[in-house]
Amino acid sequence: MNLLLDGFFSALRLIKSLDPELLSIVGVSLKVSLSSTVMAGLLGVPAGFLIALSEFPGKRMTVTVFNTLLAVPTVVIGLFVYTFISRRGLFGPWDLLYTQKAIVIGQVLLILPLVITLTIAAVSRVDHRYRQTALTLGASVLQAAAVVLREVRFGVGAAVIAAFGRVIAEVGVSMMLGGNIKGFTRTMTTAMALEYDKGEFVLAVALDLVLLTISFTLNLFLNLVQGRIRT
After folding, report:
1. CA distances (Å), 13 to each of 3, 26, 54, 189, 209, in order?
2. With left for phi above 0 and alpha for psi between -120 and 50, is residue 115 left, alpha or beta?
3. 14 near 201, Cβ under 8 Å?
4. Which of 27, 50, 61, 63 is least enclosed by beta carbons within 10 angstroms?
5. Distance CA 210, CA 136 (A)
6. Low-confidence ranges of the chain (pLDDT < 50)
7. Cα(98)–Cα(2) distance, rounded to whole angstroms?
8. How much is the pLDDT for 138?
């Protein structure tokens, strides 16, 4: 018990001191996670809208495939991307392996199905008469889609935040594609794994507290926007 308390308070002191190594690790995590979330959002939200609002052969199978991809382990995605960007891979000459760009690529592939699936679910719950009425009143296809987007904006926002929470807490992709290089590709999760292996828990606990604080802040912000919390 004393070991746990000592580690906790030592971690708080480390955070309070704004330790340079701690800040560097947090900065790398936020940079790659935000980049991958933005890219996945830009690709996944329109794709989810298109699938949800369109009728085409194989739609149900398409949705099933994306739902299945939610269960793909991070190490599988890491291995898949590794085969393409390693020295002997198709994109080997681009020198992407063990860079932040490699982590972003892997994380985008990890959360893209999540964004698409949650967007489809949000759009599918909207009464189809909203879109049909807008089209009847002379709205263009894009304007009608904007009407639907307004109705599902909170659901889409939740999808993006869920995707960010997924990538900032993952370790497999970051470790396999980033290499856990100090000051360059070391993220909060890979640093925690390293510190645990070394038997040094203070930095690991400090990073865990920062990670939990970021996740809590994002969810609190979403709830405030949705009006569930009155200020």
Report:
1. 15, 16, 54, 20, 12
2. alpha
3. no
4. 61
5. 50
6. 229-231
7. 39
8. 72
Q: CA-to-CA distance for 151 and 134, rounded, in angstroms? A: 13
Q: How far apart are CA 178 and CA 37, in angstroms?
A: 17
Does residue 2 form part of some domain? no
| Other beta carbons within 10 Å of 7 | 16
Predicted TM-score (pTM) above 0.70: yes
Is 178 within a domain?
yes
Say if residue 168 is exposed, middle or buried (CB neighbours under 10 Å; 0-12, 13-18, 19+).
buried
Number of independent structural domains in the chain: 1
Using the structure block, give the residue that is written with the tokens 């790659």: 32
**Other Cβ atoms within 10 Å of 77 Cβ, number:** 23
Convert the pLDDT of each residue in 142-178 to its tens digit: 777 777 888 888 889 889 999 999 999 999 999 999 9
Residue 98 and residue 179 in contact, taking contact as beta carbons nearer than 8 Å:
yes
Q: How many CB atoms lie within 10 A of CB 2?
A: 6
Tell me 181's DSSP state. -
Q: What is the CATH number of the domain that holds 134?
A: 1.10.3720.10
User: Containing domain of residue 189, as a range?
Assistant: 20-226
Directed axis angle between helix 202-226 and helix 188-198, to 10°?
150
Which of 11, 77, 61, 53 lies closest to 211 in space, CA to CA? 11
- Write out the two tokens for 1: 């018990």
- For 72: left if phi > 0, alpha if psi spans -120 to 50, otherwise beta; the answer is beta
